[in-house]
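In the current project phase, we have settled on a layout for protein records. One protein thus recorded is set out beneath this paragraph:
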Amino acid sequence: MERLHALPLQITPDAETGGNPAALTAWVIANQDAVRELRLRHGALLFRGFGFEALQDFQDFVAAFTTLRTYQGGASQRSKVEGMVYTSTDMAAHYEISQHHESAYTPAMPAIVGFLCGQPSETGGQTPLADARRVTARLPEELKARFLEKGLLYLNNLPDGFGFGKSWQAQFQSERREEVETQLRDSGYEWTWKPEGGLRTALRCEALLPHPETGERLWVNQADHWHPSGLRGEVRSKLERVLAVEDFPMNVTFGDGTPIDEAELELVRAIVREEMTEFPWQKGDVLICDNFLVSHGRRSYTGERKVYVALG
């Protein structure tokens, strides 16, 4: 399949924007239609050389594309830094993070994900991208039809404070059970409080989502990311020695509760890997991703790396 558009499209300063974050933000606001067209065509826009450094400038810039939101309910290890800006991940440097569409396991995933490179790593640390349109087109029609019909059931086991995975207090940003239950009820979750104080949640989601602007239905989910087959071999083996599969921190089945064939998920991963593109981060880079059109991940790295994220 011919690759028609660059991913990401790199945008650099001209006389009008002048390498100034505030001027670039004003330009985006004044040229909303043209910028939207570029985003929908390319899926990801890399703004380089505009002097982004202050987190407030980054937050203001992402807000020119979308209405910002918190990370409440998100399953990844991530910390709030300032305002509506978070660390991209708190996972250790030696871990690879597989390709995923941000928060696709939630009832209303963000449409836009913005990244700021505050400090590139010494080696590695790239944020690979993959075009969901190309991935969707390459998947077998029979596989897509089955996932479209059955949907997905995301299963989450959250400890009370400490344990395997993220705690329910951290994920839902509350220490009070009644507040968490209100969030769960409003978002359509099923849930059970476990005897030791942990929380088990289940949420049914579609596997192929319609793009909110174009309507095209795309392979946008985290089935291959949540399934135990996505874990590194030694990590999965350790979990299986101490936990039943139903007690894994994260798991996913078809929407009716039947298991997903691991071979099918490996086929998905293989196609995604073949579609991945990479670029080296530079200090001050800002990447705007259409979360429906592009998945992202993270390479392992050495040295200090600071990459921030804002969601909308």
